[in-house]
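If your schedule permits, I should be very grateful for your opinion on a structural question. I have a record of one protein: its chain in single-letter code and its fold written as discrete structure tokens. Kindly check, if you would, that the fold set down in the tokens agrees with what the sequence suggests. I remain grateful for any guidance, and I place the record below:

***
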Amino acid sequence: MAAHAATLDALPFATAVVEPVSGRLVHSNRRFEHDWRRQARLPLCDHLPALIHPDDRRLLDDLLHCAAHEHSQPVSLRVPLAAGGEKWALVDHSHWSAHLTGGLPLLLVQLADITAQKQREAEVSTREIRWNSALISSVSGVWDHHYAIGVKYYSPTWRLLRGLTEDDPLPASKEEWLKRLHPDDVDYTLHAMERQEAGDPAYQMFLYRERHADGHWVWIECRGACVERAPDGRPLRVIGTDTDVTDRIEAEHGRAQMARRLEIALTLSGVGVFEADLVTGKVYWDDRVYEMYGLSPGEEIRVGETWESFLHPEDRPRILAAVTADRDADRRFSDEYRIVLRDGSERVIRSCTVTYTDQDGHQKMVGANWDITRDVMLQRELDRARRMAEARNEELEAARSSIEYNAMHDYLTDLPNRRYLDAMMAREAAHCAREGSALGVLHIDLDRFKQINDTLGHGAGDAILKHAASVLRRLARAEQFVARIGGDEFVLLAPFTGSPRKLSALADRLVRALSEPVLHEGRECRVGASIGIAWMTGGEIDARQLLLNADMALYRAKKGGRNRYEFYSAATHEELVLAKRTADDILQGIETRQFFPVYQLQFDAGSLDICGAETLARWQHPRQGLLMPDAFLSIAEDIGALSIIDDLILEKALEDHARLTELGLVLPKLSANVSYRRLLDPGLIRKLRKQSVAPGLLSFELLESTFLDNCDDQVMRNLTQLKRLGIDIEIDDFGTGHASIVSLLQLSPNTLKIDRQLIRLLPQSAEQRRLVGSIIEIGKSLNIRVAAEGVETMEHARILRELGCDVLQGFALARPLPFNELVTFMRSGGWRETCC
């Protein structure tokens, strides 16, 4: 070994001879000693593994073990340094010839310093990680059009802002992509892309709208530049970013709208706005302030001079002192003062001013001025009139009495109001406590009043209220008290002794009298009355609870069918508790999607082909099981949840229809009931547009009783928009409402559905057949399709077919079916065997 030491020392590489497996150093050359052993943290070690970083020794052990049998690849290892830090070594080896080592199996190991290379790799890796992280976290999507090699790259963020996943296909061509752009932006976008690739600085950034995967429009801010061109100037590579700036654009629109509203509000109110920088002396007056002070817009305004010169001499000392004091104390200045214009006329100004310090440290004063000259003059006139009135004691007393009367009476019916009622109840309760008598309360609510008010207008509603007040006055006895407490609600106080049956007789008279027709402008209007009755005796009377009990009884009367009365009882209270619980369950059911549709199929009267289905709501209650609409619809309407349930049912029905189509089953039309209240919803059309309903698929069934000859303008606007969306209109329960032919022509529905009450007696009644035949003839003459519901027997179906009816619906053909049963029924075609 010693004979070869000189040869090893002459090598330009750090070289050592080590034993396989153990790694003991047999010999090392000077380069090894200088570059590695002396600099190592353990310079005196006699085993190569001791020099290596503990985390890398396993790699060296594998090298030494494998080297005894076969050649292995070089490895990169770390060597801790005595001065701190570490160096990287690329370790390679070869077998030392046995005849050179006296027959001992040794390894020749060479170490090359690759620290600089490792540092460069780490720097490159860090930059790459930093770049990738920036791309991932950025809200901008990167795109790279490399026309030279025909490759286009789009980053994950680019896809994400369009609602696309990595697996979603991209448009196959520019033409396909252009179809996703907003129609108003296509030409501009093509021009902007062309100018951007040409290097036009004005188009390095441009905006356009593109449809998101879920259907809404996204504002895209496109920034790009050509980074490589062909010798002839053609773009070879264009790189850029896309950013979703929808929120920014909408915020800018919102700010612009807010600014317009503020400007309009200031214009309408006549308020002028000003701002003064007390450091720089710059002053801003808007046009209204210039106008108040009779100056031309743009005339120079100087702090401490211009405004002060207009102050009335009598007001100047007071106002200037107040401004100074409030500014020094950092208080808001608010006062009224006179100004003298240059033409000598006077005006009265109300001013409100605050002082603040801006971000530059400048003290500024900002405020608003109102020209209240007219108000002051009016106030002066009022003061003069008041002084004249005070001189007339008798007239003043009469005015005071009138004011007191108006404060205690309803302006429309001249009945006592709620304030008067509270005072009277307290007085009657005290009287009953002294006398041991009882006090009855009748809470009266007019039935169908809102419908008349909505359809015939407030004039008709006011006439009904005056008529009801007149009836109550006429039927109330001298000791009884009648009040209107708001809307269409009245209260009658009835002190009594003996049996409360007296209250029943009184309620009977009221119900009969209020049910009589009222003539208004040649039109006969009918309302009814629901009455809740409660009573207490002697010292137990609690006025507030007595009114509450009567209100609960009224609720039960209205639930029981209206035009009737109910006495308060424990059961009434329990019923209200149950209604509250049901309302809570409805809201919970909406959240957990417990409501679902069932479908009653409709059949072509001639061919018996399925031509549609009416969607009917069902509730799968977690405790009570399957509930029909009569168990929840009225309460849902009371709490304003009916439209939400309608939306859920419609959404699920459209999903089911899509599933039927996938199964190869044809259901040409879906129909759903819609209430008058829902047609008053100004957001109805917006909600339906989100559903993306195919034209001709959906129809809305409207109760004929909804469509009196006068409809709210919002209803007619919504009906017009429904038709534009391709949604058909059907009149449900036709023949039992009050619609005229004129209103039918105005509405122009697609279908009339004859009410089941007219269908039921067709086999037994020739008169009913003539009536139904007339309705069908009316429909055909107006080019309106006629459907019949309540087809309970095949005899019904036969008669209706002979009368020329178009569509049949009823249990004789199919009962309401959930989706799974609907699929089975439609596949079976069994109704033809049953019906034919």
